[in-house]
Amino acid sequence: MKAVIFDLDGTLINSLENIASCMNSSLHEAGFATHEVEKFKFFIGEGSYKLAKNALPNQTNEDDIQKVYTRFIEIYEDNIYENTQTYEGIYELLKKLKNTNLKLGILSNKPHKFTEQFGIRFFKNCGFHEIHGQKNNVPPKPDAQAALNIAQKFNLKPEEIFYVGDSSTDMKTANNANMKSIGVLWGFRPKEELIEHGANYLAKDCEELWDIIDSNRY
């Protein structure tokens, strides 16, 4: 393998508490019920609009979904780094990867401007060549297009790239893009979900993730 693309939330950073807090504030302002933090593990992963839709009751009308989504974006932008940190071992892993010839990228369904901000705040000197979030003109994951765009930027074939993530969305993205998938077990979704959706490898911690990547690079 010649490159590694990482998901962001639930893979590189633990942002669950902050995302839950900001969405709950938006829900409360709009008069809807809020949720326990743990429930957000199953709301997150398909972009901020889908997050709002998942957090709202079934059959909520489009206007209310849009209102909750828009307000969430405003609240999140004002509190973007609160209660958010990298997972244990991530910086050590990235330091080792930076010292290889592997190209590194981030691909998230978080809005692009926020993904770029996290790239600057947390990963400025970590060797990432491409950092991409959700853009209006590109379908969100699990559509393959954004991942294939990064492969093109890397000037690599998709099958030369690992895609690393914590959810079924990530495993499906890798499969749709013809990339090899690595499911991480410290994220938001259970091991069974990753296996069910075709994870090629599973990593319980960053040391195991390094071993998988290192033993397959060329």
Which key terms come to mind for this protein?
two-stranded antiparallel ribbon, six-stranded parallel β-sheet, single chain, 218 residues, alpha/beta
What is the SS-derived class? alpha/beta
Report the helical percentage. 40-55%
Number of continuous helical runs: 9
Q: Approximately what portion of the residues adopt beta-strand conformation?
A: 15-25%
Distance between the termini: 6 Å
Radius of gyration, in angstroms, nearest whole number: 17 Å
**For the residues shown, what is the average pLDDT?**
97
Largest sheet strand order: 5-4-1-6-7-8
Order of helices and strands: EEHHHEHEHEHEHEHEH
Question: Which blocks of ≥5 consecutive residues have pLDDT under 50?
Answer: none
Biggest sheet overview: 6 strands, parallel
Overall spatial form: globular
Total count of strands:
8
Walk me through what this model shows.
- The chain starts with a strand and ends with a helix.
- Helix 1 (16-29) packs across helix 3, helix 2 crosses helix 3 and helix 4 (90-98) runs parallel beside helix 9 (206-216).
- It is built from nine helices and eight strands.
- The model has no long low-confidence stretch (mean pLDDT 97).
- The chain has 218 residues and is of the alpha/beta class.
Short characterization:
By secondary structure, the chain is of the alpha/beta class. It contains nine helices and eight strands.
